[in-house]
Request: fold
Amino acid sequence: MAFTDLAQQQDQPGILKSRDYFHSLIKAEIDKGIPSSRIVLGGFSQGGSISIFAGLTSPHPLAGIFGLSSYLLLGDALPTYLTPQVKAANSSIPIFMGHGDQDPLVKIEWGQETANRLKALGWKVDFNAYKGMAHDASPKEMDDLEAWLKERLPAQG
Reply:
């Protein structure tokens, strides 16, 4: 299946419901006193895909987004969800993507196309391909993600 065919099989109402739930979790953390600039959204596979979409459409400025073996949900419709408030909040949010070059479930081409589309829309995307890795994680990927997170969330106090 090509990246462009993915949109036809996506559950837009379900994706938007999940996005709204993620946004409510972010708001709950902010209400508890956590600055949004100390919040990172991320996950693996579908968790990473919804994290990317929810993070890009968040009305709060976040520290970053990561997606491992993930792709952009509702890619063609993304610009319609980028309100002026959302653009102002997250136009410069850094994004980390990791993907195995042997992934049979979420094809590396989908991850690469996601990174390319996000870059074309102005986001800084750090895309990392891992040789020989399938739909999995590797120690190297975790080390790269850890280093990226430490840059976004330096120790305080």
Notes: The radius of gyration is 15 Å.
